[in-house]
Amino acid sequence: MFSIPTFLDSFGPLLWAARYTLLVSGLGIALGLVIGALICAAALSRRPAWRRLAALWVSFLRGVPLLVQLLLMFYLLPVIGINVPAIAAAVITVGICASAYIAEIWRGAIGALPPGQAEAAAAIGMAPRDIWTRIVLPQAVVMSLPALVNELILLVKASSLVSVVGILEVTRASQAQAATTFRPLEVYLAAACIYLLINLCLAGVGRYLEHRMAV
Amino acid sequence: MGRTAAVEIRRVDKFYGEFQALKQIDLTIPPGKVTCLIGPSGSGKSTLLRCINFLEEYDAGEIRIDGELIGYDAPGRKMPARRLRQMRRSIGMVFQQFNLWPHMTAQENVAEGLIRVRGLRKADAAARAAEALRKVGLADKMSSHPARLSGGQQQRVAIARAIAMEPRLMLFDEPTSALDPELVGEVLNVMKTLAAEGMTMAVVTHEMGFAAHVADQVGFMEAGELVAVDSPDVVLRAPSDPRILAFLRTYHERNAF
Amino acid sequence: MGRTAAVEIRRVDKFYGEFQALKQIDLTIPPGKVTCLIGPSGSGKSTLLRCINFLEEYDAGEIRIDGELIGYDAPGRKMPARRLRQMRRSIGMVFQQFNLWPHMTAQENVAEGLIRVRGLRKADAAARAAEALRKVGLADKMSSHPARLSGGQQQRVAIARAIAMEPRLMLFDEPTSALDPELVGEVLNVMKTLAAEGMTMAVVTHEMGFAAHVADQVGFMEAGELVAVDSPDVVLRAPSDPRILAFLRTYHERNAF
Amino acid sequence: MDAGLLQQYGPMLLRGFGITVFCWLAGTVLGMALGLLVALIQRYGPRPLRWLLQVYIEVIRGTPFLVQLFVLYYGGPLIGLRLDALPAGLLGLTVYGSPYFAEIFRSGFNAVPAGQIEAARAIGMTETVIVRRILLPLGLVSALPALVNFSIILTKETVILSIITVPELMYQVQRMSTETFRYLEANLVLALFFWGLVETISRAGRRLETRITRHLIERG
Amino acid sequence: DQLDDIKADGKIVTATDMHYAPFDMLNNGTYEGMTKDLFDEVAKELGVEPVYQDIPWTAELPGLEVGKFDIVIAPVTITPERLERYTFTPPIADATVSLVKAAGNDELQKPQDIAGKTVGVQQGTAQFRQLQSYGEELGGVTVKEYGTTDEAYADLAAGRLDAVAGSLPNLTYLVKNRPETFALFEPAQFGQPTFFAWVLRKEEASESLARAIEDAIATMTEDGRIRAIQEKWLGGYTELPLTATSD
Ligand SMILES: Nc1ncnc2c1ncn2[C@@H]1O[C@H](COP(=O)(O)OP(=O)(O)OP(=O)(O)O)[C@@H](O)[C@H]1O
Ligand SMILES: Nc1ncnc2c1ncn2[C@@H]1O[C@H](COP(=O)(O)OP(=O)(O)OP(=O)(O)O)[C@@H](O)[C@H]1O
Ligand SMILES: [Mg+2]
Ligand SMILES: [Mg+2]
């Protein structure tokens, strides 16, 4: 019934494809965190224009499926004369999409911070950038770590969508493998193991940080 | 420490929605002097203090630090954030609820402003923070986080944090509420030294003895109004206003033992 | 109000990691009496109070409320949560940092325990909460959330919240730190009434006058040790221990004005 | 999109959208409930159970929904578990969402200041009451945006239900595009429907957020 | 002109969904299959280098339309509707719809036996249309649509389906790989003869390219290369028409 050799044999090609999963999600995460912080800052800014921009950003990127965003990036940008290599398009799209979710997570955590702490910093004339990076974000990041790790894990899995622009990552490789062996169950389980491995690492880092940064 | 600062408060109103927390406040805080604010709970003392560094936006009137209007460029038009920041750099504040940063140790709490605002190098800031903490008797708690400090220890970190910045104007909101009498004495001495060095101070306090001993002038607030401002001799030792008399009566009864 | 309660504390130790916050504390809090705890900042007063209702687990010794050991069934074995809860229902506490529930109004803060723990109906609880808030002078702030209250107002809500529960034993951790002298006098009166009605009270305070006037016995703590326990006449008015003498000196100097 | 196309595929697409919304709503509500349960057991339960739930969280959270659904639907019959597409889809969605919700609740709980829970414990409130009256309302303040976030992500996970032949929106859109080659229109329809759904969810979330934080974001 | 551009570049950019055995497969990340063997030869005839890209089926035709690649070399069934919208090369394989069942299912022997049964098929394919009309002929067949054939096969193995309809080459390859699970009907085929071919944009600039490929395939049919490739992958040879038509 269940073919263990197929299951084991799948790991070779899938692990090879995991390079791209790691590359796209890794860079996507990095980009998402940076842009997410900026968008979150904009969302909490005093200036209505910034706030509107952030709201629009979040609304668009959460509203339109990542698949569609990728297709837009890859198939529509060339129409207006911008051509990006597949891997760059994938990383940028994934990062930008993640930023919207990350910004919302941080916004929530910041909402739960006692306002007195930012006040104490503002009262001595600290620049907003410093208040942000030294007082607000460190605490918000710790507080939101579980939700953030959630999001990053989702991002690793969502990176499978980049196959539409021709990148052979784990999910795509497993589909290919399933189609040659006609044993999708075995192959998909192998793929699940690889995702699990990556995500366990992420969750582990999250737990570790949570532990270390807890005060 | 630079030149000292003076504060002029003119006809300031402050509303929270319908509720008027400050009513036409007029007060001059002379440079290099200690001004104490006393008055019943909820009378607007904290609100007034917070208006001085514009943490709270006042709705009418003017507050000038060394002649410079704080918060507004012109009536109703806020000043650029950059200028406000600049002005705040010479103003220190100790909050009623301390507002320590929980993710930093006592020492880091004090050093942070020195590094980010005064631009000190890390090592110098750490040394100065240690020095300030020693002054308030916390040499052995420098690497504790606020959650592991007692109430009085937290309050002293807050005081050290403000003092280390060497502001020209210092706003204290009940800086000794969580301190034992001995420490109150010590903080009082620290403040006397600072005053002697020319720092301008505005202190909200419930410790009449503290006010009587350290203040150059005392303001009495009630229900959003500044009822009286004068030397402690007048306001505390020989008050004429019946509200102040009532306010002080229980105090004297209780503290003579 | 039910039968009054007595607390017996025997050889209690408390460690935070390496740091010993309480050292072999021995103290009897007699029923229907007011026991004040004074001492320098960081000496372990709050910690001791928090051990009494087992918010802090003590590491050695025994604490008995009316003869019943709190927290443990036997040395090292914790009591069932249910029994602990039962015991806590007759113990009230006013926290040094108030710990009000920010999502509830002042009135809701007070009524919550009455409904959930005492089992009162909503309307009755609201009425009793209003009554308690009136007692501490907050009739006009009943529907304000804590974030909109001044420091002293918050503290009074915390006091009202504890008093409304009519516990047999009350633990006050600096219940007047944010209050003005007039209010301190009022709270003192409230406490005197409660004591007269037979409530047992343990009060941590920095207000020596308060302790001198209201306490039946005063304990002086230093560095985790209970240095002296006796009547206020002995501890405050005629102390022999040099540490207590030093502690009180600045106080008297300052408060006579 | 021309009128003929709309006439031909409109009803089908609408039905698909209805099923999508139903699956999402049921999956979110049930997943949130299960997640809350998991988070509470993690906080109060006995150690072995907590450990077990940790494994549950990591495994379910760490593997793709597609695989879970595939194993449940196509692998289940191998061990005698035979479900129809819709029940399988709902079960899958609920289980899939629960660890994410559990973690969000956990982080919300962690953000509640210890003192406010102590104040409740000190008067002898039961933990159930503390959870209901203190922990949840205060935990929700910081958790709400993350909850809304994940609910929105779940809307998109519903498209995966198409692989087990649940006739939801994606299934219908794919059908339309393979039959008519109107890929752009098909994707546009998909995007529009999802955008509408997501926008509704985030608006509702914002409204709830302002309601529960109104009293908290004043001075400390 | 597209052909000129390709020649100038020296390479032709293609797209195919590399999981459609035995046509397109990824073996440890290396592309192989019948399509590749065929197109390698075609590219040789054109005198250019082939560039192979793995693009999911759903993104192939849209990508072709916006010019992301020159040609879709995934085997696409020729249908009248598609002929209206795209230019097809001559057929490259037989696509006639066939049926597969679970091994050991003796109840089903010939295609007519599916009357009243549940049959799976890939969504939106030409095979789907043929299955549907065949079902009507037989007086009722429950047709279940799947996103990819993999899921249909999986559901057949899981016992929810009685049969799966697909193109003969695919099903042959499936049964060859998992004889213990799947078996072909006897005969397997039931529908109109249909064919797989490759797809180009329907525009003037593509016409010369289409003709060049047509010529290449004709040459390859003549010199027996097509036959060799078919035998290698399908285990037999079917003669194919030399122009793209659908009856
Ligand atoms: N955000 C707010 N919204 C509404 N009312 C407020 C707000 N903040 C403060 N108040 C009210 O303004 C009044 C003045 O408050 P303030 O904190 O200045 O009092 P205070 O004199 O410092 O009192 P205390 O000695 O108790 O600290 C109080 O009655 C308080 O209830
Ligand atoms: N969680 C903790 N971890 C480590 N040390 C702690 C912790 N909590 C308190 N301490 C230490 O225990 C000592 C006693 O603290 P406690 O809060 O009981 O002091 P206190 O007498 O109430 O002081 P204060 O008058 O300033 O409130 C202090 O030195 C404090 O730093
Ligand atoms: Mg105040
Ligand atoms: Mg204390």
Automatic annotation (TrEMBL), chain A:
CDD domains: TM_PBP2. SUPFAM superfamilies: MetI-like (SSF161098). It is found in: Cell inner membrane; Cell membrane. The chain crosses the membrane at residues 20-44, 56-76, 82-103, 188-209. Keywords: Amino-acid transport, Cell membrane, Membrane, Transmembrane, Transmembrane helix, Transport. Residues 18-206 form the ABC transmembrane type-1 domain. Its main location: membrane. InterPro entries: AA_ABC_transptr_permease_3TM, ArtM/GltK/GlnP/TcyL/YhdX-like, MetI-like, MetI-like_sf. It is a multi-pass membrane protein. It holds the Pfam family BPD_transp_1. Belongs to the binding-protein-dependent transport system permease family. HisMQ subfamily. This is Amino acid ABC transporter permease. The lineage of its organism: Bacteria, Pseudomonadati, Pseudomonadota, Alphaproteobacteria, Rhodobacterales.
TrEMBL record, chains B, C:
Transmembrane segments: none annotated. Residues 7-248 form the ABC transporter domain. The keyword Mitochondrion does not apply. InterPro entries: AAA+_ATPase, ABC_ATPase_HisP-typ, ABC_transporter-like_ATP-bd, ABC_transporter-like_CS, MetN_ABC_transporter-like, P-loop_NTPase. One of its GO terms (molecular function) is ATP binding. PROSITE patterns: ABC_TRANSPORTER_1 (PS00211), ABC_TRANSPORTER_2 (PS50893). CDD domains: ABC_HisP_GlnQ. Keywords: ATP-binding, Nucleotide-binding, Transport. Belongs to the ABC transporter superfamily. This is Amino acid ABC transporter ATP-binding protein. It comes from Paracoccus stylophorae.
UniProtKB/TrEMBL annotation, chain D:
It is found in: Cell inner membrane; Cell membrane. The keyword DNA-binding does not apply. It is a multi-pass membrane protein. Pfam families: BPD_transp_1 (PF00528). CDD domains: TM_PBP2. PROSITE patterns: ABC_TM1. InterPro entries: AA_ABC_transptr_permease_3TM, ArtM/GltK/GlnP/TcyL/YhdX-like, MetI-like, MetI-like_sf. The chain crosses the membrane at residues 12-41, 134-154, 180-198. Residues 17-202 form the ABC transmembrane type-1 domain. Keywords: Amino-acid transport, Cell membrane, Membrane, Transmembrane, Transmembrane helix, Transport. Its main location: membrane. It comes from the Bacteria. Belongs to the binding-protein-dependent transport system permease family. HisMQ subfamily. Part of the binding-protein-dependent transport system for glutamine; probably responsible for the translocation of the substrate across the membrane. PANTHER family: GLUTAMINE TRANSPORT SYSTEM PERMEASE PROTEIN GLNP (PTHR30614:SF20), MEMBRANE COMPONENT OF AMINO ACID ABC TRANSPORTER (PTHR30614). This is Amino acid ABC transporter permease.
